Input
Amino acid sequence: MNRNPYEVLGVAPNATDDAIKDAYRALARQYHPDRYASDDPARAAAEDKMREINDAYDEIVRMRAASGGFNNSPFSGVRACLSRGDYAEAERELDICPPDTRNAEWHFLKSVCLDRRGQTGDAMQELNTACAMDPGNEEYAKSRDIYRERAGGYGAAYRTDTYGAQRSGASSFCNCCTNLIIADCCCECLGGDLIPCM
Output
């Protein structure tokens, strides 16, 4: 990154983590390419700006995590991968985590990666595990509620004991829609808004 990442986000180097997140979210809402039609010439400029914003935020997260800051989450790198759409790298980072470090956040992020690959049943199992491990977490609960609402009730359509196999006669739920719902949740958690009507 050529520019100072703090300048890109318009915050001071001594800004709080929350101020940095707020600045990132505001810029992401302003410059997200999905706000522009595919044939709009401004879309390319928005994509470039969004890349610069993501890179700046990722750089600040890396710098602060290295010095013990920015919530010191062991999964900040995974979230950075998800924010730029690199689901394969996010899943690789998750898979190398030792089993004893796989907390609620690990299960939540794993659910996002699994859903992206179309493994809806497995994704929902991981999401349920995250909610059970951290029942007060609003991010996980909101994702599960949206997932269930869009699926018309998860339990009615899928059997989690068979890794997402559908029961005969059960109504199916489009994997594309499910992927969009989960992606929208992640995008909103990171300051974007993939689907504004949700």
Remarks:
- The two ends are 33 Å apart (CA to CA).
- The chain has a mean pLDDT of 76.
- The CA atoms of residues 66 and 72 lie 8 Å apart.
